Amino acid sequence: MVEKTPQYIEDDETLKLSIKIRLSGEMKKIDDDYLYWDKVKYLSKETDPKKYWNAIKFYRNLRTNKIKFGKYYFKYFMTEYIQKSLHLFDLNIGGNLGSNIGIAETDKNKFVISSIMEEAIASSQMEGANTTRRKAKEIIQKELKPKTKSEQMIVNNFITMRHIVQNKNLDLTVEDLLIVHQLITNDTLENEEEEGNFRRNDEIFVANFSNGDIVHIPPDHKEINELIADLCIFFNSEGEDFIHPIIKGIIIHFMIGWIHPFSDGNGRTARSIFYWYMLKRGYWLTEYLSISRIIKDTKNQYEKAYLYTENDENDLTYFINYNIKTMDKAFIALKNYIGEKQREAIQASKFLRIPNVNERQAQILKILNEDSDRILNVKEIENRFKISSFTARQDLNGLTELGFLQIIKVNKIKNNYVKSNSFDRILNSYFL
Q1: Average pLDDT over the chain, rounded to whole?
Q2: pLDDT band at 233 (very low <50, low <70, confident <90, very high)
Q3: 379-428 pLDDT, tens per residue?
Q4: Which of 138, 191, 341, 352 lies 20 to 30 Å (CA to CA) from residue 307?
């Protein structure tokens, strides 16, 4: 729970105090972090905290933009920090200028699959999926049948992300939204009829599970159709007033969570539709960003951004500011990830000196050299390198013939491949 903001009361001192705060430089710091009342009240040293808050609100209200969904009004304020960040995002993750990130054309598929996996795993873990990243990756890469609800959630999210990438240029319809929800919740809800359907009652609410307090009561279920119809129009059309695409994407994300149109799976659906909108509007590098992984690590701030918005006159700036910071962290994480993979590629290049070993096989040798207990199969290699089953089998059998791998029969058709007993000796013979 968060403390409610004081009622805004404008008096003769408000304008003077607002100007004083701006001239002192305090206003910029407060708005760059877009602080809520629970922090602003401690910044006032010489002024009554409520009057100080009124001065902050006066400045924000002068520059707010308003939007409407159904009968509900929302507003947001384009701070200097947000505008600067949007400019940097436009330069780096939109259009063709994003190519300077350093992803080689031959590596793009590999990076996309890895990023979609990370997004699917993190988004599911945020909603309670309980499994390790390593196990989750193994399930996806080897296309194993999920054995638990947690594993099913992660597989569902991965399938959903692939579906969105394949349909990223299409408009959003109500039917599309229901399909996304059905894919995300497949075989994970107690009532199967709720998969891909809007809630039909008002027994749904968002609670603080630590103490049972209700923190959000969604709109009446009878309003869902109108609200979602407005959201689809917002998604598909430019509108009379320009709203930066990234801001629109974040607002769409918020609105699905706020409307809470489904009995369960609203968070995963909201993050998926944000991802869809960003790709549709040309921010192609979003395909490589694992935003949910950053959100998962700052989940408390994510939840508070929702609460701050709702408790301060539906001011979306709290949620926008949080998500802008999250995207910035995700972009930095991507650059670090690419740098790491490029270093790995350089390290793997030494394995290419081995006669009759191709680039993929060199990567496989590097994996086994670093993880002696790793068990490989054709499906994993096929998914990892985006190659055919035939080519994956050829790569593994080729390394077996060279003495690096040993085959373990699973059944009459399927084989697993592990590091052979002579792996280290053969490798050393080439490098020593």
Answers
A1: 87
A2: very high
A3: 999 988 888 999 999 999 999 999 999 999 998 889 999 999 999 999 88
A4: 191
Is 271 annotated in a binding site? The answer is yes
207 is in an annotated binding site: yes
* Token pair for 77: 């304020």
Assess contact for 43 and 26: CB atoms under 8 A. yes
The closest of 132, 308, 112, 303 to 206, measured between CA atoms, is 303
| Residue boundaries of the structural domains of the chain | 12-62, 85-339, 354-431
Find out whether 102 is annotated in a ligand binding site.
no
Most confident of 106-110, 151-155, 393-397: 393-397
Active site (annotated) includes residue 260: yes
113 marked as binding residue: no
CATH code: domain 354-431 is 1.10.10.10
CATH 3.20.20.150 fits 85-339, yes or no: no
The pLDDT value given to residue 297? 83
The CA distance from 229 to 404, in Å, is 58
Q: Which of 87, 163, 244, 260 is catalytic?
A: 260
